[in-house]
Write a structure and sequence with these properties.
With 153 residues, the protein is α/β, with parallel strands linked by helices. It has 5 helices and 5 strands, in the order βαβαβαβαβα. β1, α1 and β2 form a beta-alpha-beta unit. The two termini are 25 Å apart.
Length: 153
């Protein structure tokens, strides 16, 4: 199953990019990974901006795959829960497992409605770049759990 991490905006800070690259390389040992950075909107009107971002995200999502949005109002998942979710989707024959990370202004309601699940990384607000790194780390951890590797204690 291919993992696709779609994030609105670029990871400009080299420290975050270095961490993200490290976890992406680790995760790539278990499963194909595609990281997609999607241009953020520039519109002053927030609704128009979010709708435009959603259109660009929908254009990059594979059809028939699992879609999770990272959202502060989403449900909490433990690392074990995430690994179980991935395993169940693999067994069900899912070809792609996509995670969408919104811009600093969040996600358009159409993206939230079109996703299979909304998950939050924390009750606290996180920088977009940190969310990118944390998703990669948690996906890597989930695959380590599934492979019975000692990374997860």
């Amino acid at each position: 199953m291919k993992i696709r991490l779609l994030s609105l905006g670029k990871t400009a800070d080299s420290r975050y990019r270095s961490l993200a690259d490290d976890y992406a390389a680790r995760l790539g040992r278990f499963t194909p990974l595609e990281r997609v950075e999607i241009r953020e909107g520039k519109e002053k009107d927030l609704d128009k901006r979010l709708k435009g971002e959603a259109e660009r995200v929908f254009a990059r999502l594979p059809s028939g795959g699992v879609v999770i949005v990272s959202d502060e109002s989403g449900r909490d998942l433990s690392s074990q829960d995430l690994s179980s979710l991935i395993a169940s989707k693999q067994l069900a024959g899912a070809k792609a497992f996509s995670v969408v990370i919104g811009s600093a202004y969040g996600l358009d309601p159409s993206l939230k409605a079109g996703a299979g699940m909304a998950v939050r990384l924390s009750a606290m607000t996180l920088p977009h770049e940190m969310a990118h790194v944390l998703w990669l780390e948690q996906l890597y951890r989930a695959f380590c759990i599934l492979a019975n590797k000692p990374y997860h204690h």
